[in-house]
Input
Amino acid sequence: MSGNRRLEVSEVGDVTVVRFVDRKILDVTNIHELGRELFALVEEQNRKKLLLNFTTVEFLSSETLGELIKLEKKVKQHTGRLMLTNIKPEIYEVFAITRLNKLFDIRDEEAEALAAFSA
Amino acid sequence: MSMSLDEWIWQLEESFPSRTADAKRLLESVLARLEGENWYPHDIFGIHLALEEALVNAVKHGNKFDEAKQVHFVVRLSPEKLYVQVRDEGPGFKIEEVPDCTEDENLEKCSGRGIMLMRNFMSRVDYNENGNMVTMEKSRKRA
Output
């Protein structure tokens, strides 16, 4: 758990809930660090149910989308499940334009995703 | 129709070495100016995204983070529109060879997502023939 600089990680039952430290996920170095921390949750800590809560995120670019796509692949390879929640409308627009709203399982609220994980 | 220079209310022209910190500083000065001119937050969000993508493309893909190479950045603002030009010193690319990221087979692998976002959020996005210079315009939204 320790050593995460870009993420806040908590557990709700068997679901790992992740929030982002950066409001604007910008700098290329930070983005790759963010990716590494996310991948470690899946590859090193073997977490199967991952919920990314975007409540704090006000901006992201295609670099970050690239890391999220890699994460989604890794979660699938580990037979896990990934959900994204609390995405602000303009950020959702970025997912919709790139059609990544079809790739990711996106839910409005964290509670809705938690219910879906345990269903 | 092109605008005569005296219609621009603000201009910025700078060349900087291929470092993201310099790109970020320039980007922030543009956003601060747009906020000062009371542009709509959604317009500013889109411009932020498009500029971020264009500058990262120039520093990372164009100049490959080579600090001996420069990124040339021009911004002009009129009451009604923003004009931006970003040029790198890389070999360029062919815009028509960038795969369409919204095709199902490309959804997970595509790297042309940044250009797609630029096209969606800006009013006009054009590349020069070499593919090392992008010119973008955003028309200001009015109530």
Chain B has one domain: 8-139. Residues 41-62 of chain B form the longest helix (22 residues).
